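The step that takes the researchers longest sounds almost clerical: writing a folded protein down as plain text. The outcome of that step, for a single protein, is printed below.
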Amino acid sequence: MGRIGRQTFQLATHNTQLKLPKLMELEFQDLPGKSQIWNNTTFAQYEDNAPIPRFNPSPTNVTFRRGETAILHCSIENLGTKTVMWRKASDPHPWTIGTYTYVKDSSVTVTHNEEANEWNLLIKNLEKRHGGVYVCQVSTRDRISRQVLLRITDNPVREKTKPSIQVSGKSYIEKGDPIKLVCNTTGSEYPPLDLDWFKDGNKINADSAKKIKIDKRHFPHANTLSSVLNITHSKMSDAGEYVCRSSNLEITSIKVHVLNEFSCCSEVLDSHFCFSYQRKLPFSPIDRNFLPVVNQKNLPEFIKSL
């Protein structure tokens, strides 16, 4: 459909199930030796009623030490069939397009996290020459873009920290109450690229119908990635072991108990006995007389406070 060079690509779709789009034009300068990877769908654009791509909040001013690995974040909603490109503002040539890398610098790569809609630029073994403004751009007619300023300091590289992972949250939840678990993982040189949640061996994905939400946030200066799992309305089936696993294969877990308001507490008490309780209501005299008999050291705090 077109040649690499200072040429104009005229791309269209022949999908008969879509409205005939307007012909799109995109210009790129010469990319020597790269013409073999181009085809007539690389920058295909559909001028339909698709939502307009938009950038999610992410750091636009980051500082790293020489020798470290920099991660420049770019998270985009409603990307559709469009393509994400990274380049340095001072360089008209694209450094990356999609998941392909074109710059002649082995320290530069791009990572794609489909779940978080992220297309992040990674630069390893940072040197002074890597400093500057970088552009994350979407292949729309308006070429919407976001700039990220990367500063490189001469301070010595920090001593590598040992990778770690921690999970926190309530272990005992009453049926119908929300479940909120927080997992923080720290890398030795830079934040892990991703965190996944599992329950009883099955991966958990965000699901609005099931009221499951997963929020992730990077803290580059602390080499930390945080993930918050929210289940709005807990059910008895939500009880079980929740595992948090980083892309560095660090793993931790927490066991969650979902209790009925008038349920038997034998599992909680670690005893052959059980009793009924009511939230916000005091124990009956019979229950209070019963309490010294059971092993109270395993009582959850919310039962002790009744």
Summary: Helices lie at 266-269, 285-290, 301-304.
